[in-house]
Each structure stands twice: as structure tokens, then as C-alpha cells.
Amino acid sequence: MRLNDPLATSFIYDNKKYKIDLSFDNVIDVFDVIEDKTLRDYEKIDIALEMLLFEPITHNKEGLWEYIYENHIASKREQVIEYDLQGNPIPIIEEEESDEIPISFDKDAPHIYASFRQAYGINLINEQGKMHWEEFKALLFALPEDTMIKKIIHIRTWQPTKGDSPEYTEQ
């Protein structure tokens, strides 16, 4: 997401322009389809493309889905290069941290909703069909630490450190 670029409502793939619905609630519905264990992979792709695009797709569905997911849905966090006082880049310590946020849009929905209301005064129900996925992700990633969903994320991602007492670890 760049502040000087418009949010995607269309894209070009294989020399063809496609209109796309990237409203946050639509993308969350696509996640529900992708996680549905009763569907085969090709069925998931067919349904996801039908939900996102405004026209039927008859060829190269897998490639198109992969392009859409990688370029418009997946959460990519850019690696920030930090510099010391002399202007030298500080070496990056590789962590086993993934770009996935440890939340469930299904199970954590009430906490996400309440956190958006608390932090931004945004009613996500009223934003269905309006708020773009990129905008939603930016606001979700930037929620303050005192919101319920951030507290839940902190609990789920907490790892004990070497000096933690057994009492602290038990908490």
C-alpha cells in the first residue's frame, strides 16, 4: 500500500484487464472458502474467483488465483532497514516470525469489531462492501496495544524467555 497510489479496483493479468472486488468482507469470505475442508482445491479457486471478479473465468484459473492472492490479498510486510548513528545499516536478525497474524476472522470477529470501534470509531458492519482490504489490513496492523484483539495476539504469540520465573511463565 502506497499513500500516493489508488487502491486496486482492477488489474491486468495476461494482457487482460479484470475488475476486482477487494472489499474487506469479501476477502474474508474468500478466506472462508479457502479454509473449507469439504471443497477440493479447484472448487475453492473457482468460487474465490467468482467472488472476487466481475466476469466468469474459463482458462488459467490457478495462475490467475495465484496472481490475485500474491499481489492483492496476502499480507506482505516490508523489511525495514535500520541504521546506526554513523549511518551504517544494522544487521538484520532473522526471526522465525511469519507474516501471518495469529487471528481467526471467524472466531475473533467480535474482538476485531470492538477493537476497530475502540481505536478508530469505525463500525465494520457499516463498512461492509466499502472498506478496501488494503485499508482494513493497515488499520488492523496498526491497532493500539490496549485493544482486545492486540491483547489476544500478544497472548497467542508470547514466547517465554530464558530469565522468566516459573510464576511469570504460568501467567
Into which percentage range does the β-strand content fall? under 5%
Flag low-confidence runs: none
Q: Strand tally, please?
A: 2
Portion in helices: 40-55%
Topology pattern, helix = H, strand = E: EEHHHHHHH
**Shape estimate:** globular
Cα-based radius of gyration, to the nearest Å = 19 Å
Structural class: mainly alpha
Mean of pLDDT: 88
Q: Helix segment count?
A: 7
Largest sheet: 2 strands, antiparallel
Strand order of the largest sheet: 1-2
Between the first and last Cα atoms, what is the distance in angstroms? 38 Å
Describe this structure in words.
By secondary structure, the protein is mostly helical. 43% of the residues lie in helices and 5% in strands. The chain is built from seven helices and two strands; from the N terminus they run E-E-H-H-H-H-H-H-H. The chain has helices at residues 24-35, 41-52, 61-73, 109-120, 133-141, 148-157, 166-170, and strands spanning 10-13, 16-19. The protein has a two-stranded antiparallel ribbon. Helix 2 packs across helix 3. The longest helix is centred in the middle third of the chain and has 13 residues, at 61-73. The radius of gyration is 19 Å and the shape is globular. The two termini are 38 Å apart.
Layout of helices and strands, plus pairs?
Blueprint lengths: L9 E4 L2 E4 L4 H12 L5 H12 L8 H13 L35 H12 L12 H9 L6 H10 L8 H5 L1
Antiparallel strand pairs: 1-2
Helix pairs in contact: 1-2, 2-3
